[in-house]
Structures are given as C-alpha cells and as structure tokens.
Amino acid sequence: MIVLTVDRTERFYKIDRLLRAHRIVSFASMQAQLVVSRATLKRDLEYMRSRLHAPIEFDRAAGGYRFAAATSSGSRYELPGLWFSAPEIHALLTLQHLVSNLRAGSVLSPHVGAVTRRLESALGAPDHGADELRRRVRILDLAARSMRLEYFETVGSALFRRRRLYITYFGRTRGDLTDRVVSPQRLVHYRDNWYLDAYCHLRKGLRSFAVDAMRSAAMLDSAAQDVSDQRLDAVLGNGYGIFSGENVTWARLRFSPERARWVSTEQWHPQQRTRFEADGSFLLELPYSDPRELIMDILRHGAGVEVLAPASLRRQMIEAIESMRECYASSA
Fold first, then answer.
1. Which fold is adopted by the domain 249-331?
2. pTM of the full predicted structure?
3. Percent helix, strand and coil across the chain, each to the nearest 5
4. Domain ranges in the chain?
5. CA distance linking residue 162 with residue 139, whole number of Å
6. Band of pLDDT at residue 130, cut at 50, 70 and 90
C-alpha cells in the first residue's frame, strides 16, 4: 500500500485544477504556482500518469501540458481521496445545504448552478464522492426556523447598498407588531437562524432583528446610518447569545464533575473564564446582558449545574424552574 503525504496529494489536486482550467499549462507556470523544484514536479507528473492514469500529455507545438481528449488505456483516472478537517467539512456541507435550500425565482438563482458545481467538486470525486459524503456525514439544523426568503433578499440588498429599511416586525416576547425604520449594519447567522444587526430609528439604538420575524420589508431611498464596528461589538457583541446590551453582568456557574466532561470542552462565550476545582467540578464565568438565552442553556444541564452568582440570575433560575414545575403539575 502506498501512502501519500497531504502535501503531495494537495499538489495532485492543484495540477488537476490547473490542467482543467487552462487549455495548455507550461512547465514553468506549473512549477511557479506549486512552488516546487523541477525534479519534484517531474516526479508528480510521472506519478499521476503512470499510477493514477491521468491522461496528461506534453504538447510540443504549444509548449505545455494538457489533458488528452481521450486516453488509450481502459483505466479510469481518479485522484486519491482527500479528507477534510472538521471545520472544513462543516463549512462545505453547511454552504451546500444553504445553497440547495434557495427557492426557485430567487435573485440568487442564476448563480446557484455555478456555486453548486464548485461545491460538488470540492466535496469529492464526481462519480460518488459528494453524494457519499453527504450520506455519511449529516448536519442537523437544531431549532432552525423557516425563513421568509423574499425579506432576506430585501434585507441583503439594503445592507450592501447602504439603504434604510422599512419593516413590520413581530416581537415574540410581547407578541406585538411594530413598524420600524432601521439602518442595516450586518447579517449574522447564529444557531441556524439569520439575524440583522441594525440601528433602529424608532428605539434610537442598536438592535438585532430575527429575519424570520419580519412580516414585511421594503428598501427606502434614504441612506443608512453607519455605525462603527467597534460600537457594534461593544453593544451587540458583549452579551450572551443573540441578546444585546451594554449593561453587562458576569454569571458564575459550577458544573458537577460528570457534566464537566462535556462543558469543559465547550465555548459559551469568547470572553469566558474557566477552571477546574479539586473535586473535579468545573467553574465557568461569562458575561451576559439579557438572561433569557443563558437560562435556557443552563436548564439543559438540570441538577448538574449550580448558579453561584449573581443573585438576580439565581432568582430568575428558581422562577423558571418553579414555572416549569407548575406547568407540569397542571397538566398531570
């Protein structure tokens, strides 16, 4: 069995892409793009021809290499498998999933075919690689909500054209509809859902709007009010999850030794502070400005977590647990 190093395998893929993208590729051009010695490139080309059955031939008249129109041998040319890292697989499959879910008639539809073909090529060999990878590796959309794509397109257009939006927004907390004019700043994909960070001219401040909660959206002629990245991060990036706010409080949580086996490898917040205690329990400290999402994540761990601070978060956790208990009791 012959084992190829990752570097050499990647060179084979680069040579393949160069020959497919150009009718003729000179030896000097190929060598410069691969950044290898003449001897290494000669060995790579010979290996691809003799061992991988690549139909590579040298055209003396054109002064370069190319793929032959057809190969005389019956052997099928196929590059060796190239595996991806975990983040690469997630990124490729997530992008493929998002692209495949674009509806017909979308403003992006004319571009989807080319993107899909590039993804198919990246995910594996054309005969079976992409389909096999999707069948064997699955990405589950946890709590993903159906999205009104027509509003997403309007939001995206206003965002990049730097125009204001007039939206009718459904606030899930109070269950009410409000009409707002907002200046879009950036789109955020979080936990399989899309959010628009924007300056709200009604509330006179920065807010995050769930795109699927927009009941209408129209782009206005007036220019959007720009907000600096530093200001956006200060207001929308310091809280926990999607909830924003400048009044940040630090939560202090202690997980049991059993739950620590999971939580110690998780990132709840970029600024979190962690440490193990002598008995194997795990301490996690993190900032939050609105407790709603944090409380939901804490409840997932049941009796395996204790809220040490602040006292207000402890009270809110107790109220949430009591509310759940009453709900179960009434339905029993």
1. Alpha-Beta Plaits (3.30.70)
2. 0.57
3. 40, 25, 35
4. 6-67, 86-136, 149-236, 249-331
5. 34
6. low
